[in-house]
Amino acid sequence: MKIVVNLDVMLAKRKMRLKELAAAIGLTEQALSTIKTNKVKGVRFATLAKICQVLECQPGDILEFVQDTPDED
């Protein structure tokens, strides 16, 4: 089981660059990049709320639960 971050998809749908989002929510581009590339172990709810506010979306639009396949065990 894993959580996949689809931040890049939402950015593309909103025609927004990572740099613009970082400036809008007050995070560094590098910090957002680690979220976008799914290299973080967790995201603060406050950060997720800011992202959703700026992108006008729901947390489920950004985060996706993916079930393991039998091959991944």
UniProtKB/TrEMBL annotation:
InterPro entries recorded: Cro/C1-type_HTH, Lambda_DNA-bd_dom_sf
HTH cro/C1-type domain span: 13-62
Gene Ontology terms for molecular function: DNA binding
The protein's name: Helix-turn-helix transcriptional regulator
Organism, scientific name: Exilibacterium tricleocarpae
